[in-house]
Amino acid sequence: MEAVVRGFEWGGVAILVVGSLAAFVSAARSYRLIGGRRAYEKARRDVGRAILLGLEFLIIADIVMTITVDPTLESAVALGVIVLVRTFLSFSLEIELEGSLPWRRSAAGADTAEAAPAD
């Protein structure tokens, strides 16, 4: 099971590195086409998505390690704290990427659809 945990950890790190590099390469390519500000916003969104996915993999690794490798009360408490911190980070990134709270997204989408002028 330790190999499985290491696999998820390496997977999370790989997602962070490859996803971030891909976001920067994509932004550099689109700089001339869509402009600097929009390329920056796109890179920021793409890096945020890579971070979110990478965090999910790292949380999986922590859960598997706590359940199978080191099933003690101390490791369970440490896992709880780690999951809380990573969940808070994921939630904050999600709000930053989407621009609204998750439970207000459908209402915000309806407001912008109503405010858009008809063709």
From TrEMBL:
Keywords from the UniProt entry: Membrane, Transmembrane, Transmembrane helix
Highest taxon above the source species: Bacteria
Membrane-crossing residue ranges in chain numbering: 12-29, 50-69
Keyword Cell inner membrane applies: no
Full protein name: DUF1622 domain-containing protein
